[in-house]
TrEMBL record:
The chain crosses the membrane at residues 20-43, 76-94, 106-127, 165-185. This is DUF624 domain-containing protein. It comes from the Bacteria. InterPro entries: DUF624. Signal peptide: none annotated. Keywords: Membrane, Transmembrane, Transmembrane helix. Pfam families: DUF624.
Length: 215
């Protein structure tokens, strides 16, 4: 193996190790359920820094982001959790019936759950990219990003659904690291989406500079 091949090998090993580590960190920090929002935001922050080469320690980046984003990310997650619970209850309720109204109600609930899932993917990416947002601003910006870059955001949604199925059948032992893999694939697309959406650059650059100082 030449010097170039050896460098590629160790780069690949480093990438896999960080993906696995971030996947485990997300799972562990999401166990209380109420912390899923902060954990998901921290995962996006750490992976964003790693993909862009701004991160010297993904573990430190993850826990720093977890602490910083805990209040806002938790509020947003609890709001979505309530909506998810209502939609799930509706879906279960309407699926027990056989009338046209029941079928329509179940369909609306299922579509609603898909839209909430779709929005959550975007909102955690937005929280990772921009500091100091309010709940309203974060949700509006997530929707703006999703519809401005509809094809790209749809690709992320498809990846998030398809990758777990593929890993389950091909590499079931890799399932605990799945969140890290999904985040890694998402952040191959998200930087271009933020450029395309043309949000104010000042906030993004300030956020990355602050994160570099915290490394």
């Amino acid at each position: 193996m030449g010097e170039k091949g050896e460098k590629l090998f160790w780069t690949g090993v480093d990438r896999v190790m960080n993906i696995v580590l971030l996947g485990f960190l997300w799972l562990i920090c999401s166990l209380p359920v109420i912390t899923i929002g902060a954990s998901s935001t921290a995962l996006n922050v750490a992976m964003s820094d790693y993909v862009r080469g701004d991160c010297y320690s993904v573990m430190k980046s993850f826990f720093t982001a977890f602490r910083q984003h805990w209040p806002l990310a938790t509020k947003i997650w609890l709001i979505h959790l309530i909506v998810i619970a209502v939609l799930l209850w509706d879906l279960i309720y309407y699926r027990t019936g056989e009338s046209t109204q029941d079928v329509l109600g179940a369909t609306v609930a299922a579509v609603g759950l898909m839209l909430v899932f779709f929005e959550l993917l975007m909102v955690y990416a937005v929280l990772a990219e921009f500091p100091g947002l309010t709940v309203k601003t974060a949700l509006v910006r997530a929707l703006d990003l999703a519809f401005t870059c509809f094809f790209e955001s749809l690709s992320i949604a498809v990846l998030t659904l398809a990758v777990p199925v593929a890993v389950f059948f091909l590499l079931p032992g890799f399932l605990p690291a799945l969140p890290g893999l999904i985040a890694y694939l998402d952040w191959q697309i998200l930087p271009k989406m933020f450029q395309k959406a043309k949000f104010k650059k000042g906030n993004r650059e300030q956020n990355r500079a602050v994160r570099k100082q915290n490394q």
